[in-house]
């Protein structure tokens, strides 16, 4: 989860988020190089006293400053396309979780198991245990096994919501009348927080998402106890 004075991305908990962070760093280095080069050229233009009264055209320099940005964009576009295809890749998911957005809470269904469905509301911080996270804790967590491919089906019943978990690299819209699909692969145990990131009404800020990642053995025990 995000902490105070954290200007960087959250620590990744999935291979996809690692790839997103790598792409972010790659693109940021290119932007810094461009900014330094353009800034240096502009400062030189401001402060030098060179004058060329006979300059009418410069075909070579125009060719150079057309080709170099094209090559730069290719260096950004190719990793970006690779990442887009990786984000859509889904191979043999172990389980399917259906997430349904409401005003203003989430409900979840484990489609592979009988009678496992529940609503997830934000906990009132003032009336709850002081150890809870304000505006992020819920009464019913999503329980998922780590180191397994998981399919997430997302929809909504009323308005557009957005199911977003930053540390897992997941952001997918929940549209009424439409079923969107994404995937998760959590590579470590822990608790991961997210929120609706589509402005969906008065209590938009108060429908958090909370995922608890556990081992497959503990997940099977949870399923048996829930049923």
From TrEMBL:
Known cofactor(s): Cu cation
MF GO annotations: copper ion binding; cytochrome-c oxidase activity
Catalytic reaction equation(s): 4 Fe(II)-[cytochrome c] + O2 + 8 H(+)(in) = 4 Fe(III)-[cytochrome c] + 2 H2O + 4 H(+)(out)
Domain Cytochrome oxidase subunit II transmembrane region profile: 1-91
Bilayer topology annotation: Multi-pass membrane protein
Domain Cytochrome oxidase subunit II copper A binding, first and last residues per copy: 92-225
Pfam families per the UniProt record, alphabetical: COX2, COX2_TM
Highest taxon of source: Eukaryota
InterPro entries (alphabetical): CcO_II, CcO_II-like_C, CcO_II_C, Copper_CuA, Cupredoxin, Cyt_c_oxidase_su2_TM_dom, Cyt_c_oxidase_su2_TM_sf
Transmembrane domains' residue ranges: 20-43, 63-87
CDD domains: CcO_II_C
GO biological process: ATP synthesis coupled electron transport
Annotated Gene Ontology cellular component terms: mitochondrial inner membrane
Family: Belongs to the cytochrome c oxidase subunit 2 family.
General function of this protein: Component of the cytochrome c oxidase, the last enzyme in the mitochondrial electron transport chain which drives oxidative phosphorylation. The respiratory chain contains 3 multisubunit complexes succinate dehydrogenase (complex II, CII), ubiquinol-cytochrome c oxidoreductase (cytochrome b-c1 complex, complex III, CIII) and cytochrome c oxidase (complex IV, CIV), that cooperate to transfer electrons derived from NADH and succinate to molecular oxygen, creating an electrochemical gradient over the inner membrane that drives transmembrane transport and the ATP synthase.
Protein name: Cytochrome c oxidase subunit 2
Organism: Papilio polytes romulus
Source taxonomy: Eukaryota, Metazoa, Ecdysozoa, Arthropoda, Hexapoda
